[in-house]
Task: structure prediction
Amino acid sequence: MAYSETKVVLGGLAHIPIIIGFFYLIRRQYSFGAMLRTGNNALSEKVSSAPSKPAAPAKPAAPAKPAAPAKPAAPAKPAAPAKPAAPAKPAAPAKPAATAKPAAAKKPHSEVPVNTYKPKAPFTGTVTENYSALKEGAIGKVQHITFDLSGGDPEFKYVEGQSCGILAAGEDAKGKPHRPRLYSIASTRYGDNFAGNTLSLCVRQLQYEKDGETINGVCSTYLCNLSPGDKVKISGPVGKEMLLPEEEDSNIIMLATGTGIAPMRAYLRRMFEPTEIEKHNWKFKGKAWLFMGAPKTANLLYNDDFEHYKSKFPENLRYTKAISREQQNTKGGRMYIQDRVLEHADEIFNMIENPKTHIYLCGLKGMEPGIDEAMTTAAAAKGLDWAELRPKLRKAGRWHAETY
Ligand code: NAP
Result:
């Protein structure tokens, strides 16, 4: 009996490995099925949508635990490290941002060249072209004049919004060389030919009557009568007042009368001229709004170019004209740009409230009081005081004025 009991016990014990083996097989089968299922889920999420990717790894991680054997562990590996690795990367740029700080502390436009050539030792440029910027029936004489700047040591370099000095040939009434006259540069740093070695001006011949006699401005007449090949003494570049902001998403409001359009032409070419855009890495993404004052339609300078830019970039460029001798303001007087400013005061003020907006004025000094008056009215409608606001804009480097 004791023998047979031992036999039974031993027999029972002998079945234990079989039972363990049986359970092991069942469990293994189950784990393998689970692995297949999770594997399929991960795949389908990957295909269906990229953003859901990070959700997938969480699932295989759970079944991977019971699966002691090496095989189930394998799918768990790619799931976990692959996705977290991506978010870890964006953390890296934090360092460059920190190291970039000293550069940000640099004064804006500190690398813009100034006075490379002084009036006492000017650069000698060569006229490459000189043509009328006016259309048939326009008043007066306005020329677009281009100079070759190549061969300078140091090179004559400039940026949009700067001016240069011109030393007219000859002597004044006292037998002394003419003093330099400043002109706003009308070309971008790449020049009209995009070669980076020319500079263009937009010059009206100054003429006025004195004692019944027509007096011609010395320097403007000299410039307007130049021919290709002529040598001209040029100083500069000068000025940092009218430079464009570096931010590509800035908004630029431009108020120009007559040849005051010169710097604005450079800005607009920089923003919208296709070859310019190819040349530089500065891609304008903001809103530009040009207000242009001229006596007649035929006097609108570079009008065809601006209309073309407007048609190509309707979302980015607005172009409003004040044609003083063809249009009337609400009081029946000549239409000046300040009348246009008043018409659009609300929109202009909405733009000014955005710290990314800059305002540029160039041309007749006489337009400034008119612009101030229009802005005062517009500001008051919004409960603001323009006399307080304007100096603040100027201090913030957002109000740029160059008027003669
Ligand atoms: P323009 O072709 O005669 O055009 C000037 C326009 O402004 C005309 O429509 C004129 O109207 C109008 N205007 C006259 N008085 C005005 C006033 N108080 N407010 C607003 N608009 C007024 O111009 P321009 O002969 O080329 O003269 C441009 C001026 O800008 C020159 O004095 C030039 O020295 C100066 N400018 C300055 C810079 C600079 O500072 N960087 C650059 C270039 C030019 P009506 O004639 O019909 O009255």
About this structure: The first strand starts at residue 123 and ends at 132. The pocket of NAP is lined by residues 184, 204, 257-260, 262, 293-295, 299, 324-325, 334, 336-338, 362-364, 366-367, 370, 402-404 (CB under 6 Å). Residues 241-404 form a domain with the Rossmann fold fold (CATH 3.40.50.80). The mean pLDDT is 82.
